[in-house]
Amino acid sequence: MTRPPDAQLTHLGLYVRDLDTMVAFYADLLGMVVTDSGELRGARITFMSRNPEEHHQLVMISGRPDDEYSPVSQMSFRVGTLEDLQYYHRAVAAMGLRDVRPSNHGNAWSIYFLDPEGNKVEIYAASPWYVNQPHLQPLDLDAPADEIRASTEAMVRRDASFQPRETWQSTLSARLAA
Q: What distances in angstroms separate CA 115 from CA 32, 93, 106, 123, 168, one per listed residue?
């Protein structure tokens, strides 16, 4: 089988009820900036990014009805380190957001929460290890980062699927190249 050309997920679009509130939320929490905004078919639209190589990573369009449930399962934002994730955990707590769930997946540490309109958001940092997914354990992000790393390593080493992240990535790269 011939693989299609590489396609990477680069942005997500959301229909929102209160565009100004949502723009402020993603700017304040994640440091995203507005790259463009305007009108599209009678609705307001705003593009936001945190990456200078991506015009937008998030696009939001006004007009979502009040009674409409979000069709998005979750939006995920990767941060560079466990300490970065702990920063965001404190920021999310300070904002008083709903349904905050710190989670340890073995291959990553995450916090899940709801944005002001009830969309599920995940912020995560990769760990240096891999274990089969799904893998979900509670996580105390108030613990020192070195303790979290040590307890996570002990947990994943007990799993039969454990391997270093580099090994898993190399295997996946070979599969993608086939």
A: 15, 12, 25, 12, 32
